Amino acid sequence: MKEARSGKSIPEDVVKMIFSNISSIYQFHVLFFLPELQKRMEDWSSNPRIGDVIQKLAPFLKMYGEYVKNFDKAVELITTWWEKSPPFQELIVDIQKREVCANLTLQHHMLEPVQRIPRYELLLKDYVRKLPPESPDRHDAEKALEMIFSAAKHSNAAIAEMERLQNLWEVYRRLGLEDDIVDPSNELIKEGPIQKISFRNNTTSEKYLFLFNNMLLFCVPKVIQVGAEFQVRWRIDVEGMKDVEFPHSFLVSGKQRSLELQASPRGASRLCSTEVTEPCSLLSLAQFKSEELGRRAPQWVRDKLVTMCMRCKEPFNAITRRRHHCRACGYVVCARCSDYRAPLQYDRNRPNRVCLECYVFLTGHLLPEEREGKNKGILEKESAEISGQSLMCSFLQLLDKNGKGGTRGWFVIPQDDPLVLYMYAAPQFPHLCSGDDGTY
């Protein structure tokens, strides 16, 4: 410390960081613990007890926790200053040559306080084991052993906390130290690469997940890794999160986002084969409970699972009727059926594209009649009344006698007359077709 105060080799604050609270630990042993034990040893013939002394002073042994927690950082500081400061290197070499150091390094001597509490515990265990049952010191010694064990546990907890904070800080550094993420109270549970499945085109792309005790971070590796290693795309709160397993994949549904993921690329081809034969389980996930609509992100129904709008039933095509997703329920709908915007709670109440049904539910507003008529197709206007009371309704392609494609129309089988098939080919009155013999 005298050398540090002279300012020639190492700053004084660096010395304090290296040795932490070792001065307080030394004063405790010199002024209290050692004198009490020495006094008891001198009176051992009349009062053969040490358990009460250790009980009285054992709580102060928890001060070792601060020293233990700082030990790794102290060793790192010594290494750093050894490499960059020749005067510091000369000072350490000179100290280690002294007879009192017994040819041992400074780091070796600094390790002694770290091992002190475990040695006290082992010594006291051996002492209690060898005490006769009728010894007047048995009760106090056993109580003192419990207190020493508590001090050792406190030191171990300090080491674990130090390691946790170091690992957490390293993760934050890789994420770019974003203000809304950095929190020393967080606990990293797991991290690793993952394959995200696209709802639109059924392809996979490699992403990276960080799972904390309170949030899931969905990240992408940065192309130019200067500073941060990953970029955070989405943050999903763990509270309210659901996990649904599919064959070869699983769905993470949170309030802010829903993601379908798989652990390895090998499952992608097998996943495609199951989707076509089991689409109902995927479609049902888009149907939220009414109290959840708009409050949590839906799972989008995949584009390739749907050939027509899930609201008006008109078929999709690449030019005039493209696919869109309702941000509230996740259905695949056409532009006309999703030409509405409503604030969604999971997206910080920002307006999002939604379908008509979700718009009415979320806002409570009924559309004007002219808006309703404007958004309906020709066939919808003519067939709406009967389609709403039908057993089945869909577009079908009529074939001529040669098996070639002909007129395409909207077909309806009403509930009250299931033997009659209604065909809407244009805005005129519907044609009636007898369906009992299979002819038209």
For the largest beta-sheet, the strand count, sense and barrel status come to: 7 strands, antiparallel
Uncertain stretches of 5 or more adjacent residues = 264-288, 426-440
Question: Any idea what the shape is?
Answer: elongated
Question: What gyration radius follows from the Cα positions, in whole Å?
Answer: 37 Å
What is the share of helical residues?
A: 40-55%
Q: What structural category do the secondary elements indicate?
A: alpha+beta
Sheet with the most strands: spatial strand order:
4-3-2-1-7-6-5
Number of domains: 4
**The CATH fourth-level homologous superfamily of the largest domain:** Dbl homology (DH) domain
Number of helices: 13
**CATH C-level label of the largest domain:** Mainly Alpha
Protein name: FYVE, RhoGEF and PH domain containing 2
Subcellular location: Cytoplasm, Cytoskeleton
Organism: Terrapene triunguis (Three-toed box turtle)
GO molecular function, one term: phosphatidylinositol phosphate binding
Secondary structure layout plus pairing:
Blueprint: H1 2-6, H2 12-19, H3 22-42, H4 51-57, H5 64-84, H6 86-96, H7 106-130, H8 138-175, E1 188-197, E2 204-212, E3 215-221, E4 230-237, E5 242-246, E6 249-253, E7 258-262, H9 267-277, H10 279-285, E8 324-325, E9 332-333, E10 340-344, E11 350-354, H11 356-363, H12 369-374, H13 378-387, E12 390-399, E13 405-414, E14 420-424, E15 431-434
Antiparallel strand pairs: 1-2, 1-7, 2-3, 3-4, 5-6, 6-7, 8-9, 10-11, 12-13, 13-14, 14-15
